[in-house]
């Protein structure tokens, strides 16, 4: 694994999940691997889980971490090639990224989309420029279109809790007050399409995900039909891909309720968090035995630790090929 940006980076996602479950049982077995190594974590946007779980994962591997809220504390960064920098951006990515690469062995980047220009967001300019100029492995902490650490934690959670070899997993759109990125549902769909699950996506008309992410999933506009017999319900809001970045429907009847959970096969309720109670999902579901959102968030540590371990081994192999 050169970088961790999408489901395409690990060679074998089932192998990665197995490794994560082993790491969860023996979290300090690789404490020596990170000695004298540094992880840089760059946040252009807010975070609770990604920031803390990745720091904890680094700590378990003996890695030091340096965290910077680049969106608030850093110089305004220019990403355009050939830009005349006479505006409010003081530093170009062509200098900033390789400088960060001098200080760190692995660099994590969180950068959300602007939700105004679909082509620009889907080109993943920010994270790709870090890949191009840092000279070190790049770990996505959520990019414009994907959140792979979240998806790996989601798959670990499904593996832990499934009660049949091939569970039915439903990704349902849910209402929200703000226009949100498609990164979490895109990524979840991308990972579920590679996993051994029956995968169904349900949303109101107009909220279709980009075809490269929806893949071969069954898509239905009938939420109740989708819930029937489901083993896992994964709720998430996203803004429209077609009418890019817009809220085209905020129908509250799409909220996940206990009444709808009764249609399922006693399904587990999942959400990446943070979640708006009684907008996305009602209290009764989150406060019930159905909800596994805390366990799911806990698994963010094991997802991050597994990926960091693999990236560290890659760095070490390249530095000392004769040791491996
Ligand atoms: N799920 C998730 O990525 O949470 P944070 O935005 O708090 O990191």
Distinctive features:
single chain, 324 residues, alpha/beta, Rossmann fold, 2 domains, 5-stranded parallel beta sheet, 38% helix, 14% strand, globular, binds phosphoric acid mono(formamide)ester
Describe the largest sheet. Answer: 5 strands, parallel
User: What bound compounds does this protein have?
Assistant: phosphoric acid mono(formamide)ester
Strand order in the sheet with the most strands: 9-8-7-10-11
Rg (CA only): 20 Å
Strand content: 5-15%
Provide the number of structural domains: 2
Can you give the helix content as a percent range?
25-40%
CATH class categorisation of the largest domain: Alpha Beta
Order of helices and strands: HEHEHEEHEHHEHEHEHEHEHEHH
- Helical run tally: 13
Secondary-structure class: alpha/beta
Mass-distribution shape: globular
Distance between the termini: 16 Å
Q: What is the CATH homologous superfamily assignment of the largest domain? A: Aspartate/ornithine carbamoyltransferase
- Quaternary structure annotation: single chain
What is the number of beta strands? 11
Indicate the CATH architecture of the largest domain.
Answer: 3-Layer(aba) Sandwich
Average residue-wise pLDDT: 97
According to CATH, the fold-level topology of the largest domain is Rossmann fold
The parts where pLDDT drops under 50 for at least 5 residues are none
